[in-house]
Amino acid sequence: MTTAAAHTPDTSTDAETPASASARHPWTLQRRLIVTVVAITSLIMVLVAVTTSALLGTVLEDRLTDQLKNVSERTAAMARPLIATGLSAEEILTEQPQPAGTLLAVESPPEAPTAAVTEADGTVTALNDDQITQLAAGLQQEGPLVVSIDDVGTYRVQGITSGPSIIVVGLSRDEVAQTIGRMLTTIGLLTLGGLILLAAASAWTIRAGLAPLRAVADTAERVSRLPLDHGDVSIPERVPDREADPRTEIGRVGAALNTLLDHVGSSLSARQRNEERMRRFVADASHELRTPLASIRGYSELSLRALGTSHRPETIDTAESSLERIQAQSLRMTTLVEDLLLLARLDEGQELVYGAVDLSRLAIEAVGDARPAGPDHVWQIDVGEEPVVLAGDAGRLHQVAANLLANARTHTPAGTTVTVSVATENGDAILRVHDDGPGVDPGVADEIFERFSRADRSRARQTGGTGLGLSIAQAIVETHGGTISVQSTPGDTTFEVRLPLRSTAPVGDERAAQ
Length: 514
Description:
Shape: elongated
CATH class of the largest domain: Alpha Beta
Helix content: 40-55%
Number of domains: 3
CATH topology of the largest domain: Heat Shock Protein 90
CATH superfamily of the largest domain: Histidine kinase-like ATPase, C-terminal domain
Distance between the termini: 80 Å
Strand order of the largest sheet: 3-2-1-6-5-4
Largest sheet: 6 strands, antiparallel
Structural class: alpha+beta
Number of strands: 13
Number of helices: 13
């Protein structure tokens, strides 16, 4: 065991070498900028070189094609009488010399095909059978006829039929390739020199320009060491004013970081408030659910005890009454859970089906529904002759009006006058619910739309719901893109719902009614 362990090779050093090297030599922003600038410039210059070469090559190839047409006609006219005498391609080029780089192939049945080229020094060289086979294979391709022949070169060729004979004339592409090669070499050398100069200038400029950024990095590093994960947190660190001058690029970074730190500080304060609000929300929801659950448990135990001890009529009546109370508490708890679910779905932008809604008719119907529930109140409606039509969810908007009227009925004494009005103003549809009751206590006015918020102290309400009615109304209105607000003084309380007066659903809403 000991011997085996002693001879076990240690590979941990080799395995961690790349990661350790990367950790010891990270790429700085300066290096990344220099490499990026040089790489992009190199890419642009290479693209320019390739594009220029391609354009030049196209021009030279077109020129070679035009030249080949002229040479082909002239050479074919010269070769026809010689082919009739039985001369081969080599003999024809020897008897009628052509410019260097000219290829001539002749096939005149029953004679075997022959081919020859004129060298740079003016000599004529005949092609062997393998080379002639390569030439014949190249003539079978589609498009521009460019043929590569071993030990001879690349030629652009054109075939001409003359009676039973076939004449093929070609011109060498060596000059085109040499011209493009020289141009690429020149561009490459100029590119290399320019990149070296660019790298040196970029290094100096970036090094000087990024010096103030170190102050920003130091500030961010100090902020990173602050405990921001809990409690009421403040961020005192800021970039110095001389490094946060918005007239310079680095200064804009410093100013942006200062603005960001201000926003983060505000967000942390808001987070603390939200956490406190969430704790209150959970406590309120638990309290609201605990009461019906306790009632259900108590009445169920009472029913079981009564049924288990006796079957007398009064015992059965007690059990029946208990079951009715269980049902009532279950319905109350169901309503609470449904309201919470509706709020959650509205927060996610769900639960709306858009269509044309006549807000005037909706207000009239809501008042008609409220009169039987509040016969001791005076209900009034104020709508214009012209209907106020907008795009919205009729059911949810009716729920908003019903909640506002129920709120007015519940929180005001008998004899209170409640007036519902509908109007248009600055492109918005406005629904107002006004009452002359005691008004909203200023101490709870800012929290009146909070979930589980109640205004019992100011409205002298003896009984009521769970405190979610106005929260649901606000969520529905905001989901429609509108606002809801309240203005209240003793004897004058007005809830105002302002909705965009549009004829179509918001863009991108896939639940719009067809």
